[in-house]
Design goal:
The protein has helices spanning 104-116, 172-183, and strands at residues 33-40, 43-50, 56-57, 62-71, 77-83, 94-97, 119-131, 136-146, 155-161, 167-168, 189-190. It is mainly beta. The chain folds into two domains: 20-57, Ubiquitin Ligase Nedd4, Chain: W (Single Sheet); 62-184, Nucleoside Triphosphate Pyrophosphohydrolase. It binds zinc ion. One of its GO terms (biological process) is NADP+ catabolic process.
Length: 192
């Protein structure tokens, strides 16, 4: 599945930038959407609403799954990967969009397998992080995995790091990495 990490060098990214203004037509009846105020539970709210039916474009955040992949058959080193379209040398977590009909844990097992071919042996939740610029919520796991590494075409390279070698970044997935390092009694260090 398309990784969320496409244009951004910082470990998070958009499939669509998912701003409410991107939508023009009602997906239910195909009439125009317009910014309209209506009374909601929390009071009057301005949202994109259909001009013909009662459809509201809520523009809820999209769940993105992320994994700190620790390779138990490679000395417990952590795999970071580089997206083929990133312009710089940034390496980030494995990420992907959660799909309909799967749990978050099923989704991140699938993403790790699709993107690296590694088999996830165990998962633990690190935390949930917002990424408001892209209207995403990031559900981050630590994944123990093993097997042969074969990258999907979306990824062009990977590197294996001892945990104490890792450098974190300020965006959501980097915060997850920092939190996991603290859980390992490692004070996170940050990219310049
Ligand atoms: Zn409509």
């Amino acid at each position: 599945m398309k990784t969320p990490l496409q244009t951004s060098p910082d470990g998070t990214q958009a499939h669509s930038e998912s701003q409410a203004g991107d939508w023009n037509f009602c997906p239910r009846c195909s009439h125009r959407l317009a910014w309209r105020e209506a009374m909601e539970d929390g009071g009057p709210r301005l949202r994109l609403r259909c001009t013909a039916c009662d459809f509201t474009h809520w523009n809820n955040p999209t769940p993105v799954l992320a994994a700190i992949v620790q390779c138990s058959d490679r000395g417990d080193r952590v795999l970071l990967a580089r997206n083929a379209v990133w312009p710089n040398q940034f390496y980030g977590l494995i990420t992907g969009f959660m799909e309909a009909g799967e749990t978050a844990e099923e989704g991140i097992r699938r993403e790790v397998q699709e993107e690296t071919s590694l088999e996830v042996q165990s998962l633990s939740l690190v935390g949930v992080y917002e990424y408001q610029r892209l209207n995403q919520v990031i559900i981050a796991y630590h994944a123990r995995a093993r097997g042969e590494i074969r990258l999907s075409p979306e990824l062009c390279d990977y590197r294996l790091f001892e945990p104490h070698e890792l450098r974190c970044w300020p965006q959501g997935t980097g915060q997850a990495l920092a939190q996991w390092l603290r859980q390992q009694d490692i004070e996170p260090r940050w990219l310049d």
